[in-house]
Fold 4-hydroxythreonine-4-phosphate dehydrogenase.
Amino acid sequence: MSPRPIALSCGEPAGIGPEIAARAWDTLRDTCPFVWIGDPSHLPPETPVARIEASGQAVAASASALPVLPLPFAAPSVPGRADPRNAAGVIAAIEKAVSLVQDGAASAVCTAPIHKKALIDGADFAYPGHTEFLAALAGGAQAVMMLAGPSLRVVPVTIHVPLAQVPRALTPDLLRATIEITAADLTAKFGIARPRIAVAGLNPHAGEGGAMGREELDWIADLVASMSGPYTLTGPHPADTMFHAAARARYDAAIAMYHDQALIPIKTLDFDRGVNVTLGLPFIRTSPDHGTAFDIAGTGTANPTSLIEALKLAQRMARAA
């Protein structure tokens, strides 16, 4: 069977997505073939482009040009200025990437950053972000966000929730489902036969016996102790001692209770090479762990490293699946 490319949706054309896609191709060429889905006129003008009609042509084309499945957009791209007229095109590119992987024509989906306000203004986009939209395209799957880097994989149980609301949003059912989805995908998509998962506490020092919060005593410790399966589960651990090198060597993924508890350590360890991975979907999806960066769009200074790492990780996951 010939290798299948990764389907890369263009993201917001006024952001850095088009230029980092071109630079990612220039770095990877045919070592990690992908097909870019979008309007070719939005790419940097010096980009060698191979317009293809089917994703299967991307592998051969990748050696000498960026393979592009052309998708006409309503408006030109002005760096740094999102145009709501292009919202429908951005959404269509994501839908096309998903349909390619669902049809077996692509090995994985990788998504460039989107601008949610432009999508809402231009197309009444009804989802908080990529993850929820992809879950809907997958038939309503429960999706879980993982941040993965060279030395850490971490999964936040609650994500874009104000800190004051985290204790209410954090429920036993949500924590259990997050652990189970993480364990299943560490095996199915990362090739880890028996994953080791460490669970962080919610409170400082994991509650310190109830002196700094009771959630660990009241239900988190019991839930962790009650769970069993083809994985090793430990915790709740004090979060402030979970992320140094010796601690990271003892697990394959960490479960964090809220956004900053997860994202601060991975961005501190390796800011440029962090990758956003969506677990729980019936296909592989990765994304660079940054936004549209309107302030530097079009300047040629955007760092493509996170996108390159996202494409390379998608390729490794596809080979492990």
